[in-house]
Write a structure and sequence with these properties.
With 335 residues, this protein is α/β, with parallel strands linked by helices. It contains ten helices and nine strands.
């Protein structure tokens, strides 16, 4: 197998996603370009960890991409610490991340590996498609806000292109990126109990670009995963909660790396992509096409709630009410 060895990290926290976790692991083991290993990092759930360890016991010492290791999150509760645990244990030159409720297409890792033939490339992300629990996209749900459900949204560039940051549920990094920039910041992303926060991968990518100005970060939309969207996330209540949480998270990112870089892509998104989305929605409404007015209204509501979250988050950050930490990650010896 030519190219870098790739370790895949899947972070899990609840038995409610048992079938999803098994499907995610199966999709990694079925890759056309085999992974070096799959690391299942369990977030402070001993029952789930023991159950997964039993499920994959026979794969701990296998080879040819079939290795599955189950680990306990060695840090505080949350996705960032879980990912850092996986990074520290990974043996591959590249570490890829897959959500526990997603499945990767067969050539996912092959497209990642191809990009790393350029030694300047330090991170590669892919495209994430939603799989709606109801079987179809809600008519009012705008594609410009698919990031609300952890998916690739309208407005991102197509093809293999250079970007400011990759999206964490479908992403990969050279291990040396973590030597240069540290790990995922704890205190920004999700921790299983609080609001659906995010942006930890954005903050890391900006930090990486500062530590390594020559670094190239890419998105290759041929590296596709399919992400399950549960029924509860198809409703406007979740949409509103998630957009507000995004504003809170963006305030932390701006605090860490400055508003210039922290909001660089967001300015283009809010001044170009979203107005075009509102215009399409209003046009569809005038043409009596279903959902047009709802999509236009949802875009406006999403902007307002995200802006409100950003203001609240900025005030909290200035008052010292919110903290986060960027840990160093000591990685395992490479094989």
């Amino acid at each position: 197998m030519s190219g870098p060895g790739i370790s895949v990290v899947i972070c899990a926290y609840t038995e409610d996603r048992w079938e999803d976790i098994l499907a995610a692991v199966s999709s990694v083991r079925a890759q056309s370009r085999p992974a070096l290993e799959t690391l299942l990092v369990v977030d402070h759930n001993a029952t789930l960890r023991e159950r997964l360890a039993k499920e994959y016991k026979e794969y701990e010492g296998t080879s040819d991409g079939a290795v599955v290791r189950v680990l306990a999150n060695a840090g505080p509760r949350g996705l960032s610490a879980g990912r850092n645990t996986g990074i520290a244990a990974a043996r591959g030159e590249v570490v890829a991340f897959l959500d526990d409720d997603a499945v990767a297409e067969r050539d996912w890792l092959r497209h990642f590996a191809e990009a790393y033939t350029d030694p300047r490339v330090m991170a590669v992300g892919g495209r994430t498609e939603p799989v709606w629990a109801s079987g179809r996209r809600p008519g009012w749900f705008p594609e410009e806000f698919d990031w609300v459900v952890g998916c690739t949204y309208r407005g991102l560039p197509r093809g293999r292109v250079r970007v400011r940051n990759v999206l964490g549920g479908n992403a990969s990094f050279r291990r040396s990126a973590f030597d240069a920039a540290g790990g995922f910041a704890t205190g920004i992303g999700r921790d299983g109990d609080k609001r659906p926060l995010g942006c930890e991968e954005t903050e890391l990518c900006i930090r990486l670009s500062r530590a390594r100005p020559d670094a190239v970060l890419l998105i290759d939309d041929r590296a596709v995963i399919h992400h399950r969207v549960p029924e509860a996330r198809e409703h406007f209540r979740y949409f509103r909660t998630r957009t507000y949480a995004e504003g809170l998270s963006k305030a932390l990112v701006a605090r860490s790396v400055g508003a210039g870089k922290g909001l660089e892509s967001e300015r283009r998104y809010t001044t170009r992509v979203l107005p075009a989305g509102v215009a399409r929605g209003l046009r569809d409404a005038l043409l009596a096409r279903p959902g047009g007015a709802g999509r236009a209204g949802a875009i406006v509501a999403g902007v307002l709630t995200a802006a409100g979250g950003y203001v609240v988050g900025s005030v909290r950050a200035r008052r010292g009410g919110t903290t986060f930490r960027v840990p160093e990650v000591e990685v395992a010896p490479r094989e």
